[in-house]
Design brief:
heterodimer, A: mainly beta, 4-stranded antiparallel β-sheet, B: alpha/beta, 17 helices
């Protein structure tokens, strides 16, 4: 998928109480409309071959972060079409500054398609400064 | 070596090009005898919108620039705080349309029947959900709601055994609940008839039967011109390979499709071959079978004639307008005369669904409107 789905902006380590607890990466929808969070079925982030699964990631929209389990019932909270979602990945110590191979996959239900959820997969080399 | 040409060389080059390439011109881009009006779906500009090259205002400016009269609008993409934008935003919407003299025509709508992962919604819940869109369409002055149509089958009845199919909600049950809301918000549903639908299908019969039985003007059809596709898009294989599809597997899928192998069987084979997600998508129901017809399964433009009284809106779907001002896979020159003869007098809104690279939509839409104006002028 095209490179604009993963943003250069916003790729950085996340610090809480003075400690690096993980990193974040912003993704923009490849679909053609915004969707309710309840339609998102799964996601994962892979950096330099290391895969982080849904229980290590929170999905951020509208300045709030959600766990996948919470999203299932959120039919009126939306991931707007042109607004990047911020994936907050738990990784104590974070990532080293430099260039990383980043891959993001997410699955969402499209009501008029087959039962199998639709997969969106993006990858890009991103530079982490701090 | 320099790449610069002298003025003389440049003029010679131009003259030579003009002599070789007979660039088609059309006699009439002026008034047509047909009453069919041309508009544009905002969906057409998705590549430019997603890559931040254009804004909604840029889209409206652009369609006005080449003479489009109306707009079809995809609210779930472009309305801030959907489905409840501020009054200020609604005011800016009308300001924009007024400034460029573009008519609000159609609301591109959806219905997420699978909103919950583990349960189906009943007809009343679905009607309540769609009411939010009717209300928004009404606020935006859009009187036609393009949606569902041939997607009802998938959205309610498939796959067999799923929670959605087991719930047994029928399209007709949903319409029963929605009709009073359509009156309330002055909305007409134009059910989208999209590939791979056949005009001879049972679903078409059910739609028309329902409309006849209810004697309602609130429900009709929006025929997507993609249903007349008569060959595979030129870039189908190229796109899949660019995204990581392997040539041998892509070739296998396309060959099987052309030979009319059932879609489920192609998918199973590709799974056995160790298909990657891109290949599986091409083989899946949303892949080649969703956007294409093979030779065993084509709609004929003449089949459209009997449905014309039911048509409330048309989708001018297209993927690739060449320099010959023809759509590579859709025989517009055979479909437009059927529409004219049948007396269709509503809008056809262009939906460009080809290459989403920036700058493409503006080029492609102009070529398509040039072709459409010419065909309409021949009425």
């Amino acid at each position: 998928m095209a490179e604009w789905n993963i943003h250069d902006e916003g790729f950085k380590n996340v610090t809480q109480n003075g400690k690096i607890t993980g990193f974040q990466v912003k993704i923009q929808s490849s679909y053609y409309r915004g969707i309710a969070l309840s339609l998102i079925e799964d996601y994962e982030v892979t950096v330099d071959g290391e895969t982080f699964k849904q229980d290590q990631i929170k999905f951020g929209v509208g300045n709030r972060n959600y766990a996948l389990g919470e999203m299932e019932s959120l039919i009126d909270v939306r991931w707007p079409w042109l607004e990047p979602a911020v994936l907050m990945v738990n990784k104590p110590g974070g990532l080293k500054p430099g260039i990383h191979d980043v891959q993001v996959i997410y699955l969402y239900r499209v009501s008029y398609m087959e039962a199998r959820a639709t997969t969106a997969a993006f990858s890009k080399k991103l530079t982490l400064v701090m | 070596m320099t790449n610069e040409l002298t003025r003389k060389e440049f003029l010679q080059t131009l003259a030579a090009a003009a002599a070789v390439a007979a660039i088609p011109t059309f006699t009439a881009c002026s008034a047509s005898k047909s009453k069919i009006k041309l508009g544009v779906c905002t969906y057409s500009y998705n590549g430019d919108l997603q890559q931040r090259r254009m804004t909604l205002e840029n889209c409206v400016t652009d369609m006005a620039d080449f003479g489009a009269e109306g707009i079809e609008f995809l609210a779930e993409a472009l309305v801030p705080d959907y489905p409840n934008p501020s009054d200020k935003w609604i005011e800016s919407w009308f300001g924009l349309l007024d400034k460029y003299k573009i008519k609000p025509v159609c609301y591109t709508g959806f219905l997420d029947t699978r909103l919950y992962k583990n349960r189906a919604m009943n007809a009343q819940e679905l009607a309540d959900r769609i009411e939010r869109d009717f209300k928004l369409a009404n606020r935006m002055g859009l009187k036609i709601f393009r949606g569902m149509g041939s997607s009802w089958d998938h959205a309610l009845d498939l796959p067999p055994g799923s929670v959605w199919a087991k719930a047994g909600v029928k399209m007709e049950d949903c319409f029963d609940k929605m009709l009073p809301l359509m009156d309330k918000y002055d909305i007409t549903i134009a059910g989208e008839i999209h590939s791979p639908e056949r005009l001879s299908s049972d679903l078409m019969k059910r739609l028309v039967d329902y409309i006849d039985r209810k004697k309602t003007q609130r429900i009709g059809l929006c025929v997507d011109m993609g249903i007349f596709q008569d060959r595979i898009r030129r870039n189908t294989a190229q796109n899949v390979i660019a995204q990581g599809g392997r040539q041998n597997i892509v070739d296998f899928i396309i060959k099987s499709f052309e030979e009319n192998v059932p879609q489920e069987k192609i998918l199973a084979e590709v799974e056995k071959m160790g298909g990657n997600p891109v290949e599986l998508r091409l083989a899946g129901p949303s892949g080649i079978y969703h956007g294409s017809y093979n030779s065993a399964n084509r709609n004929k433009p003449e089949e459209l004639a009997k449905y014309i009284p039911y048509i409330k809106h048309l989708h001018g779907k297209f993927w690739e307008m060449g320099e010959d001002l023809k759509e590579y896979s859709i025989p517009y020159d055979k479909v437009i005369p059927v529409l004219i003869k049948g007396g269709y007098d509503g809008f056809m809104c262009s939906e460009y669904e080809g290459n989403r690279d920036v700058f493409q939509a503006q080029i492609q839409l102009r070529r398509q409107h040039c072709m459409l104006r010419s065909l309409l002028a021949q009425a």
